Amino acid sequence: MSKSSAARSRYNSLQDRIFDTLNIIFMLCLVVVTLYPFLNMLAVSLNDANDAVRGGIHVLPRMLTWENYEYVFGEATIFHSMFISGARAVIGTIVSVFCTAMLAYTVSRQEFVLKKFVTIAFIMTMYFSGGLIPNYLLIRDLGMLNTFEVYIIPGLIGVFNMIVIRSFIEGLPEGILESARIDGAGEFITFIRVVLPLTVPALATVSLFVAVGQWNSWFDVFLYNSSNIDLSTLQYELMKILQTTNTSNSSQSAADAFAGAQGGVTAVTPASIRATMTIVASVPIIIVYPFLQKYFVKGMTVGGVKG
């Protein structure tokens, strides 16, 4: 019997078929469990609000309508808050990843005398913090209340992200960096022209972490910019609607609060608006993730192998 025939025979054995079947069933169950909440939320957002109150909606809308999305995008603050969220996600990601990468390159150099001390000092911040009140007082004394900078500067360096990038840089061939220095490149030029292009997988991984964090963040808006509606973000607007929903005395009183202008007919409900805004807030990240997926897997693999 040839090697290929023996391999096919082993693969077609009963144990292999049972394993493959169970593996496929498990993965299908995992996909269903993962996707169902999102599909259910999408179905509720596309369903008539009054009909959705009856329940029984799973992954398909029972009465298809766009009224929920028309209501959400009809709000005066939505488009502006989406712009602020997008701006902080883009600017915050670029600035944070660049600064984090510079720090990671610095602490990855063996000739850096304070390498161990600086690394330990940053890692300590992952376990200890000054507390909410001292942090607020610091932001106030720095004059960053009611400013856009408060979204960027306090979270400029991510320690975990720094460790991921540092581990990737330490895996680069040292000869490449030495050749750049022989050609007369300084440390900054070496970092810009050599290190950054070679660390794209790690940078893409960290960029995804930072972008998702910036896009989903609302608590800093509540703390520092709640009185400035011009700096309100999409997630903060979503939080306010969820808070209104949770504090409603009854589903009927909440529905009355969202009553339409024509004849008092309820056009939307808190549950339908909550589902709609959740979908609106999730779509940008869902669109971006497939383009970064291959870099995300590679960057996390390298960052996890090297310490």
Explain what the structure shows.
This protein has 15 helices and no strands. The chain starts with a helix and ends with a helix. The longest helix has 36 residues, at 270-305. The protein has helices at 3-11, 14-45, 49-52, 67-74, 78-108, 115-124, 132-141, 159-170, 174-182, 187-198, 200-216, 219-224, 234-246, 251-257, 270-305. Residues 249-255, 259-266 and 303-307 have low confidence and may be disordered. It folds into 2 domains: 3-75 and 248-305, no CATH class; 78-224, MetI-like fold (Orthogonal Bundle). It is 70% helix and 0% strand. The chain is an all-alpha fold.
CATH top level assignment of the largest domain: Mainly Alpha
Major β-sheet annotation: none
Query: pLDDT under 50 segments (min length 5)?
Result: 249-255, 259-266, 303-307
Per DSSP, the total helix count is 15
CATH superfamily of the largest domain: MetI-like
Mean pLDDT: 80
Protein name: Carbohydrate ABC transporter permease
Transmembrane segments: 21-39, 78-105, 117-139, 151-169, 190-212, 273-292
Domain ABC transmembrane type-1: 82-292
Keywords: Cell membrane, Membrane, Transmembrane, Transmembrane helix, Transport
Give me a quick take on this structure.
By secondary structure, this protein is mostly helical. The chain has helices at 3-11, 14-45, 49-52, 67-74, 78-108, 115-124, 132-141, 159-170, 174-182, 187-198, 200-216, 219-224, 234-246, 251-257, 270-305. Keywords: Cell membrane, Membrane, Transmembrane, Transmembrane helix, Transport.
